[in-house]
């Protein structure tokens, strides 16, 4: 018997919180882990670097260079993360056995090794068309004024819908397809409407391919600006919020994609009054959309509280960060575990009591209780959760990463 856990359990019980129920709930919350932390968003097409106004910085060694290395690294990370999760792939991670296919010719067969990988580990797969790091994405993609470029990227989007459907069929779990495009302008546009009208038309055409809506959940991810596209972003929040509401697709909110004082935690309840589900990219933006590793910080905790209040089945959770300055496996483990800790902390909150205090306008007591709860021993419950899920508790996992790193030196 673990004494620290037992004493934490008692303390939480005295506040009306069932720690066992919280741990059971947490074990059932899947997080779609992004594959792109492992190789700095490089993919397997052999292209010439990351574009689209996003950036990976740092030169820590050990980036995965092949599908085999990436898969082994994902396995290593998964072995240190409690619970059963999902894997989030980008189209640029296609694995070509023979002749490579361009983005508009991608087919399910190019992702067969990933489906086998996922099947063996009981993971669901989510998917993202890749509208960047490609010669045809230099100026614009779905909002392009060039009919050929416009059509190329529509074909890419359509191909990806079919691939997501294949994932869902093979693995027996719906696949989220997240559309994010980098299109925008460095300078103040003379015409804001045209590119947005073309984006709208492109989305209509992508959605016109027949697909099973039970199997593929399509979401669109907005953004406020990208590097080199500071003045105007075609796919803005208002654009996709309206598009999603009218066309019955989901919005994906990335918490790095808003003005710095805007809170994604505050947006979730509004979105869910009008849509059955909302999807999230959880990240940490430091001064800009820098995609630092997720921490157990106030922003993440506040989002976790809203997710738990909304019902964890209504918020589709994915991670999105890329740090090349630290060990990449540790980055995954720290990020996902931090998000889980935030969710656990939310699950260990006497939510009904706090809500009652608000409804009765007893704000002094509400403030007092919230502050007292901050020092409750969530860490003891977290460690118990790790142990019952057969992953190292505390810092124990880090030694295993160091060992793996020594065995897998990559020049
Ligand atoms: C970019 C978006 C997008 C990407 C991934 C790689 O700002 O956040 O989600 O990070 O598609
Ligand atoms: Zn994102």
Report what the structure shows.
With 411 residues, this protein is of the alpha/beta class. The protein has one domain: TIM Barrel (Alpha-Beta Barrel), CATH 3.20.20. Helix content is 44%, strand content 11%. It has 14 helices and 10 strands. It has an 8-stranded parallel sheet with strand order 3-2-1-10-9-8-6-4, with helices on one face. A two-stranded antiparallel sheet has the order 5-7. Strand 1, helix 3 and strand 2 form a beta-alpha-beta unit. The protein starts with a helix and ends with a helix. The mean pLDDT is 97.
Short description:
By secondary structure, this protein is an alpha/beta fold. The protein is built from 14 helices and ten strands.
Between the first and last Cα atoms, what is the distance in angstroms? 46 Å
Main sheet record: 8 strands, parallel
Low-confidence stretches: none
Spatial shape: globular
Hetero ligands:
L-rhamnitol, zinc ion
Alpha-beta classification: alpha/beta
Helix content range: 40-55%
Strand order of the largest sheet: 3-2-1-10-9-8-6-4
Secondary-structure element string:
HHEHEHEHEEHEEHEHEHEHHHHH
């Amino acid at each position: 018997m673990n004494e620290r856990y037992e004493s934490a359990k008692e303390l939480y019980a005295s506040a009306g919180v069932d720690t066992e129920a919280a741990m059971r709930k947490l074990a059932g919350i899947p997080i779609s882990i992004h594959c792109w932390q492992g190789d700095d968003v490089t993919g397997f097409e052999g292209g010439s670097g990351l574009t689209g106004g996003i950036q990976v910085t740092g030169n820590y060694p050990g980036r995965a260079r092949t599908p085999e290395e990436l898969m082994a690294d994902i396995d290593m990370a998964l072995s240190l993360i409690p619970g059963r999760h999902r894997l989030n792939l980008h189209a640029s991670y296609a694995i070509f056995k023979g002749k490579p296919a361009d983005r508009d010719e991608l087919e399910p067969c190019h992702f067969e090794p990933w489906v086998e990988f996922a099947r063996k580990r009981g993971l669901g797969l989510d998917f993202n068309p890749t509208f960047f790091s490609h010669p045809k994405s230099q100026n614009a993609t779905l909002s392009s004024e060039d009919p050929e470029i416009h059509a190329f990227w529509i074909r890419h989007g359509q191909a990806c819908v079919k691939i997501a459907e294949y994932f869902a069929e093979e693995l027996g779990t719906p696949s989220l397809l997240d559309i994010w495009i980098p299109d925008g302008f460095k300078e103040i546009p003379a015409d804001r409407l045209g590119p947005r009208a073309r984006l709208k038309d492109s989305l209509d055409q992508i959605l016109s391919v027949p697909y099973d809506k039970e199997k593929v959940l399509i979401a669109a991810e907005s953004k406020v600006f990208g590097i080199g596209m500071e003045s105007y972003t075609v796919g803005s929040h208002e654009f996709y919020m309206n598009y999603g509401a009218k066309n019955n697709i989901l919005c994906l909110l990335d918490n790095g994609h808003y003005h710095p004082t805007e809170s994604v935690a505050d947006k979730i309840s509004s979105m869910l009054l009008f849509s059955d589900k909302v999807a999230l990219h959880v990240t940490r933006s430091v001064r800009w959309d820098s995609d630092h590793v997720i921490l157990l910080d106030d922003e993440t905790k506040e989002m976790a509280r809203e997710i738990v209040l909304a019902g964890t089945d209504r918020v589709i959770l994915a991670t999105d960060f890329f740090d090349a300055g630290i060990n990449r496996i540790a980055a995954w483990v720290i990020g996902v575990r931090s998000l889980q800790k935030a969710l656990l902390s939310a699950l260990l909150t006497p939510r009904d009591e706090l809500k009652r205090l608000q409804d009765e306008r007893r704000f002094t007591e509400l403030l007092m209780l919230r502050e007292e709860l901050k020092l409750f021993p969530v860490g003891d419950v977290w460690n118990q959760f790790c142990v019952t899920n057969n992953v190292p508790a505390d810092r124990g996992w880090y030694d295993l990463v160091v060992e793996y790193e020594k065995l897998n030196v990559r020049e």
